[in-house]
Amino acid sequence: MPNQKPYRLPTTVIPERYAIRLTPDLAAATFAGEERVFLQVREPVRQIVLNAAELEFQTVSAKGPDGASFLGTVTLDSENEQAVLNFSETLNPGTWELQIAFLGILNDKLHGFYRSTYKDPKGQEKVLASTQFESTDARRAFPCWDEPAFKAVFQVTLVVDLGLTAISNARAIREMPLSGTGKKAVVFADTIKMSTYLVAFIVGEFEGTDPVMVGNAPLRVWAVPGKRHLGKFAQEIGSFSLAFFWRYYGIPYPGDKLDLIAIPDFASGAMENLGAITFRETALLVDEKKATRAELERVADVVSHENAHMWFGDLVTMKWWNGLWLNEAFATFMEMLAVDVWKPEWRRWESFTVSRAAAMQVDGLKSTRPIEFPVEKPEEAAGMFDVLTYEKGASVLRMLEQYLGADKFRDGIRLYLCRHEYANAETTDLWDALEESTHEPARALMDSWIFQAGYPLISVEKSGRSLILSQRLFRYLQDGDIPNRQFHVPIFLRAETKGGLSQQTLLLKDAQTRVDLPDDVNWAVVNAGGHGFYRVRYSGDLMEALKGGLQTRLLPVERFNLVNDVWATTLAGLTPLTDYVDLLELLRDETDINVWTALIMSCHHLHRIFHDQQDRALQERLRGILLPAIDRLGWSPKEGESELQRQLRGELIAALGTLAEDKACQTRARELYAEYEKDPTAVERNLVPALVSIVAHTGNGADYEKFYTKFKTAKTPQEETRYLFALGAFRRLELIERTLTLTVNGEVRTQNAPYLMRSVLLNKDARERAWSFMKDHWSEMLRLYPDNSIPRMCEGVVGLVTRELEADVREFFKKHPVKQGAKQMEQHLERLRVAVAAKERWQDLLRG
Ligand SMILES: [Zn+2]
């Protein structure tokens, strides 16, 4: 029988323990490795098949239970990234020790075992080496069974220069100088039984904070020299969240120490390697005194997300990549839970509504996919790291938690983790545990959300003393073939009748249901509390009743949903544009930051769609809403106001000075920025990004030069990122030309360049030029940038909202399909289609 899935490994041989010794040469960008793998051979074999990529095998041998040793030869299968080890004798069942010596390269693609460079405080160029193995790149560092279900114990030894720090997953138990070589061998303890994608090695000149103990585990933050002082905030949320999860899960932290390490070049946000979590610098290092609330929140989010993975992902792991959501949705859910308890004043679950909205935007497309999606080949796993896995996954878990009750939900999670620790699990195992511990039908409810794509639009109508609720799949494109797909929808209802307020929770399973109320309904909120992953469309009278009491009848999160749902149905052509714009006028008195975010995001979207005349009309209306709101807040911080209000001030001023093109605001912002330059304490930190964005938006060559220098000399990762992305917000084409050049000339790290490119594509004044630049430099970008960033960069095409550009975009990607991101590319193109269709539908509306 030929192997049906040649990219999957046979299960005739199972690894149990790896002893890996690596000697990296940072200057030559190579490494030498030796490994011993203790195996269980389950049936007689002449071949051992395992994964390897970009490795050169030197010697292979296998030692059997009786001490006999056989040499092996190697056949490489580069297409499937496998090595076949052939032996002249049969290896009989039992315990074997495989020995392999190999050579590898420290690559520049930010995956596998790779090089990262930085300048030290003296301005000298330095090199370090780090790893990024998820999903399938451990095979670039050592030959291994690189599938999540082949869990094993790892014992690592790193041979490094005497002056360097070496970090791996477990504690260092010995450091031995190797005489005459200028090197030392750092020997690490055995790890727990875990998957290959969680193994990590980090080597370089690192400086660590003093440890903080969480139980028996010392927790430290590491950074390249000169940046250690930026690790304090991360260490605080790190130790808080680790202790929080320990209590929540009821299981001790599975590692023996925890290092949080900032890597100057990093392809994603962070990576949950057990005991040695790696981060990009902006997600870990931050100056608490200078950073904005949003920048601090990002660090808190990412650190607690990764810590949550130590249990969800590391201790219990999905069997195969189709179950990735089990890792990522849970870590995202747990991240919110911990940060919300740590800083309740940030109201983290309310701002999560913005992330939920981002997932609903993609999930309203025909080209969406279910949360759990068949993944055959390992490279398809890369396409799973998206808003559907993370944000939709976390949203439906939150919906389930609210429906079952927080304590019952937690008990089910504890049972699941206990039952599968040190092993692998599938979605069905989670429902088993939840049903067993809660006695509720979690499986039927959740299967409709995990295995079906999309989400429903719930229509609500009044009928005497009842409400009629009906569900139908929501789609942005109304082209006739909307499938009849039903969900088990937890309905959270709050209604006011003549007799008073009534609240109830029910499950809508059919296409329609009638909810009887004690008396005639004055108004009703469906999706009360905002936890449901669905949209609501109220009949005319119910909508008017809500509009009549936006600030009194609705919670902020419910106002967010109202605005966001009406905006979605407007974009979908189900609600007239003028109705939406009228709704915005009612938000003049709004004080909640998330509601404003919904409003401002939709106006950015409109700006990209509108022609000039429409844009001017939009600007005028926006000024009418924003000016009174800013007058209420004032330009300077007030005694006793919250951090969220300070952030809101910044966001409103940024919108007034850019989107709404308010000249007075622009002048004032430029003056304030000049003051800030003289004295950085003159401006409240949450206002600074607004000033920077307005200066860039209205900026000339001198401003550009200044921002460019600030990007190059920034003292914190946040400041560096702020000025870098400001370079994409200038409008003069000769300046944008310089920014575009930066994306490929090596001045901007490849971890950021693709996202800078995306931001220029979304800059309406520069988009055409940006698109033609991207086409011209396409092959260069593919060669330079991390693979996972290519489909993300291409998201920028959603800003190319003209019929001609859309046609050109489709043509281009037909000729240049994006590997590892076919689904995401389809979604970007459909989002562009939605915008162009709206442009054509609206072109005669709202002219100034
Ligand atoms: Zn994660």
What does it look like?
With 848 residues, the chain is of the alpha+beta class. The protein has 26 helices and 29 strands. A 10-stranded mixed β-sheet has the order 3-6-5-4-7-2-1-10-13-12, with no helix packed on it. Strands 15, 16, 17, 18, 19 and 20 form a 6-stranded mixed β-sheet that branches. Strands 27-24-23-29 form a 4-stranded mixed β-sheet. A hairpin with a 2-residue loop joins strand 25 and strand 26. The termini are far apart. The model has no long low-confidence stretch (mean pLDDT 96). Bound molecules: zinc ion. The site of zinc ion has 5 residues, from helix 2 and helix 3.
Secondary-structure topology with pairs:
Layout: E1 13-25, E2 30-41, E3 45-51, E4 56-63, E5 69-77, E6 82-91, E7 94-105, E8 112-119, E9 125-132, E10 153-161, E11 165-168, E12 172-178, E13 183-188, E14 201-204, E15 207-208, E16 212-214, E17 217-223, H1 232-249, E18 258-263, E19 270-271, E20 276-280, H2 293-309, E21 316-318, H3 324-342, H4 348-363, H5 388-404, H6 406-420, E22 423-425, H7 427-438, H8 442-450, E23 456-463, E24 466-473, E25 489-497, E26 500-508, E27 512-516, E28 521-526, E29 535-538, H9 540-547, H10 550-553, H11 556-571, H12 577-585, H13 593-609, H14 612-633, H15 643-657, H16 663-678, H17 688-697, H18 701-713, H19 717-726, H20 733-742, H21 753-761, H22 767-776, H23 778-784, H24 789-793, H25 803-815, H26 822-842
Parallel strand pairs: 1-10, 17-18, 18-20, 21-22, 23-29
Antiparallel strand pairs: 1-2, 2-7, 3-6, 4-5, 4-7, 5-6, 8-9, 10-13, 11-14, 12-13, 15-17, 16-17, 19-20, 23-24, 24-27, 25-26, 25-28
Residues 272, 305, 309, 328, 331 line the site of zinc ion (ZN).
